[in-house]
């Protein structure tokens, strides 16, 4: 990325309570960032410009596959393998909170195989969720 992209800020518009005019902030018109490209490698809007996309392998129960085929997780989605019960998909994205939330939303019908750090992070979140229901 460039110097300008490191100063980008993502604000949740639905949580802004008040806006005040300020003479201390310089507004810079965007003419150097292609936002389609900027968000290409993520799910959602949380971009860590210091990270590169990673190949994520996901096992999907075949009952879920038609849904994910018609509404892909990401534009890079490819089917790598199919067997009688599961299919293996790959996507290439920068891991972020929105990706984790999307993957967890499919519950027991989806399992991250690789990378190991993402798999372990999701397993930790699932364990914490399970503890909420004990």
The description of the largest β-sheet is: 4 strands, antiparallel
Approximately how much helix is present in the residues? 25-40%
CATH class group: Alpha Beta
Averaged pLDDT: 90
Quantity of strands, as a count: 4
Give the SSE map.
Layout: H1 35-38, E1 54-61, H2 65-70, E2 78-82, E3 86-93, H3 97-104, E4 110-114, H4 116-132
Antiparallel strand pairs: 1-3, 1-4, 2-3
Tags for this entry?
alpha+beta; four-stranded antiparallel beta sheet; 26% helix; Alpha-Beta Plaits
Plain-language structure description:
There is one protein chain. This protein has 134 residues and is of the alpha+beta class. 26% of the residues lie in helices and 19% in strands. The chain has helices spanning 35-38, 65-70, 97-104, 116-132, and strands at 54-61, 78-82, 86-93, 110-114. A 4-stranded antiparallel sheet has the order 2-3-1-4. Strand 2 and strand 3 (86-93) form a beta hairpin. The protein is globular. 9% of the residues are buried.
Summary of the model, kept short:
With 134 residues, this protein is α+β, with helices and mostly antiparallel strands.
